[in-house]
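Hi, here's the filled form for the chain we discussed.

Project: internal
Contact: R.S.
Residues: 336
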Amino acid sequence: MKFIKQNSYGIILSAAVAAVAYILGRFFPIVGGPVFGIVLGMVINNTLGKPESAVSGIRFTGKKVLQWSIILLGAGLSMNQVAEAGLSSFFLMIFTLSAAFVTAYVAGYFLKIPFKLKSLIGTGTAICGGSAIAALSPVIDADEHDISFSISTVFLFNIAAVFIFPAAGHMFGFSNEGFGLWAGTAINDTSSVVAAGYSYSKEAGDYATIVKLARTLLIVPICLIYALVFYIGQKRKHDSSSQTVRYSFVKIFPWFVLGFLLMSALRSMEIIPVAAADVVAECGKIAIILALSAIGLNADFRRMFKTGIKPVILGLIVWAAVTFSSLAVQFISGKL
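And the returned structure, exactly as it came back:
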């Protein structure tokens, strides 16, 4: 009863925003429900504001529901389905992933962007946009400001890619497989990959989608690496202080990532039937809209304005690095 009393108002408010975002996302799939959720939440919080009684529930939704949504999304990935495409594009994905993170940290250093924000932008660009940012944010304890800014930044170049990639592909005469591989490794959000791929050709769209699904699995090792790095950093901080504080890796370990893997494994072994798994994955997509709506309801425009345009510049640089590194590897290997 105490939980319901403390959190019900915030959960209901988040759900109301998420419902509108979900409907808008169905009408405008290129934008998608998650982006609508976070934008609507931000607009409401920075114009109308929110009642004090809703604060606790909004925080709960933005943190806990976010983790549950990642677990549910695992049901949408069949490891068997993505294995072949993943193996064939593994080298390219590792190369583009490395390009994204090296660029994010080098450029972020010179732009003086905080660790958490550049980590989210780098991960979102390297892997799968909002889903990757949502998965990583609890691992590094990112706040609503960093999550909102990184998702907005990555989304901006996501939309640009939908229009630029097909035009560039036709201009340079890419093969269907070559374009599909480029779109699947260089465009971050799944809906944008699908939009760009199928606007080029059906064959390119099919291949781009499978490559993108394989790329999504990289969320798992990335989150585990960040959990270890974050643990080491926090442990050193506590060890160097005069306080005797025990810092446990178990407490910050991203257990929801294991849930993500378990759901994918259950689908792959058909313990969960494909039809049921698709329903679970769809529930995960709705849950992530709910969580990001709550995050938007906690985001503060004033803090974002103080951060300035530098994160957007970083997003552009990282996006360009991923785009051109993917092309370079394919050109050298003769796949284009």
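Let me know if anything looks off before we file it.
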